[in-house]
Amino acid sequence: MLKRRQAVTNQEDRRRFLIRVFAGAGTLFLAGCDQLSKSEWVQSLLSNDSRISRFTHRLIGPRKAMAQEFSEADLSPEFRSNGTSTPNNPAYQELAKNDFKDWALEVGGLVEKPQKFTLEQIRALPSRTQITRHDCVEGWSAIGKWKGTPLLEILSIVGVKSNAKFLVFHCADPMEDDGTNNYYESIDLEDAFHPQTILAYELNDKTLPVPNGAPIRVRVERQLGYKMAKYIMRIELVDSFEHIAGGKGGYWEDQGYEWYAGI
Amino acid sequence: MPELSESILIPRHTLPVRIMHWINVISFFVLLMSGLNIFNAHPALNLGKSSYNGHEPILEMEAEETDNGELVGVTRIFGYEFDTTGIFGVSKDDQRELVERGFPSWMTLPGPKWLAMARHWHLFFAWLFVINGLCYIYYSFKSRHVQADLLPTSKDLASIWQSVKDHVRFKHAVGDEARSYNVLQKFAYLGVIFILLPLIILMGWGMSPFLNSLLPGWVDFFGGRQTVRVIHFIVAWLLVAFVFIHVFEVIITGLWNNLRSMITGKYRITYPNAKKETGRDESRG
Question: CATH topology for B5-43+108-278?
Fold first, then answer.
C-alpha cells in the first residue's frame, strides 16, 4: 500500500514537473523568440539560410537556366511601382526634365576601359525583349514586358578585370528623407553575364516611366524584386562590397535582407 | 483495494522517431508563425500567374479609417466583407495600440512587422524541416516503420467505418489493440507525411524565382505563382487542423501515456481485468 501511494505521488510530481516544463517552454517560446530575433548570434545563425539556399541552387541549377517568359496575354494591366516612385534628388530631377538626354551611365571600378554610356548609345547596342514576372519579397508578383541591353554587351565593351567579383549598381534615389543613403544593389558575375540580365529602358513598349526606374533599371530575373535596382547612375565592378555603405551589398541587405534573393 | 486492471509498459517510439518528432514540433511552430509574419507584408491572396491580372484577391486583410479616425480591420473573402478589428487587419501591437497588420502579433514571429527577420526564421527552419523530413523518410522505410506501423492492413481497411464510429464516440482501443495505430490515425499520418508536407514544401519552392527557372513554367501546372502561394497558405492551415486534432486525440487517449511514449519511448498498455480473461474486447464487436 505504502509503496503504491509513493508511486502515485512520484507520478503526480512527475506530471506537475512536466506541466511546468511544457507551460514554461510555451511561454519561453513566444517571448523568447522575439528576444532571440534581436540577439546578434541568432541573427547571424539564421542568416545562414541564404548561404545554404545559394549553395544548393548553384549546385542543382544550370548557370544559364532561364527564367520563365510569358505571353502578352499574361501582362499585368499596370506594372506596380514599389519603393521609390519619384527620387527626392534635385540632380536626378534635372536629368528627368530633359528626358535624360544629359544622363550617362558610368561604368568603372575593376574594368579595363572605364567609360560613360549615354541613353542613345545604350539604345544603339543589341537589345533583348522579355515578358517576365517580377516577384517582390513581400509576396506579390506582376508581369511586365521589358526591353533593354543585355548587361554582358556593356561588360564586353569595358572589359572585366580578372579580379572583379561583383557588380554594384549605384542609384539616384535617396532612401532617407534628408536626401542621403542612396539605393544600391549588387550581383555576382554569374548573374551579370546571364542572357536575361538586361539594363531595361522600356516597359510594356513605352519608355521606362520614372516610377519604374527611368532611365534604366536592371532586370535580374532569377532573383526577387529588390535586387533589380532602379534609377541606375553608375555601375562599379569590385572584388568586395564590404567598404560600400553598410557593407552587405545593398540597401535592403543592410537592413537585414538576404544578399542572395533567389528564394 | 481490488485490482481493476493490469498494465504493461511496451516500447512504442524509437529514439530517432522521438528526436525527429520534437524537431518537427519546433520547426512547425517557427514555420507557421514566421510564415504569418511574411504573409503580413502583403496580406492578400490572388489566384493566377501574378497578383495584378485584373481579378480581385480571394482573401484580403486591410485597415480602414472611420470619419472619427478609428481604425477598423476589414477582411474580405471572395468579395464578402467582415469587420475583424482586433484580430485581422487591425490589432494591438506591443504598445497596446491598434495598428494595421494582417495577422495579430501574438500569432507571428517575430511579433512586430519584421519581414527580413521573419524570412530568416522561415527559410532557416525550412531547411531544418526538409533535412529532418528526409532523414525521417529514409529511417522509417529502412527500419520498416512505414511498412509495419503506418500502412493500413486489409483488416484495417475493412474496419474503417467501425473506426469512424469509435472516433466520434471517443472510444479508444485498449489492450492489444492499442499496440498499433488505428486505421484513421494511419491515414492521417500518411496523408500528412506523404501528401501535405511534400505539397507545402513544393509550393514553397514554387515561390522561389530561381527554382522557377529550373523547369520554366512548372508553377503554371499548379495554376501559377500566386496560386502556389495560396496553396502554400491553405496547406499550412490544414496542418494546423491536423495538429489540433492530433493534440486533442493525444489528450483524450491518455496525455501522460502518450507524452511518455514520445519522450522515453515507453507506452502503457492497459488490459481491463474482466476482458483480459476472454482475451479480447467484446464491445468492439
Answer: Fumarate Reductase Cytochrome B subunit (1.20.950)
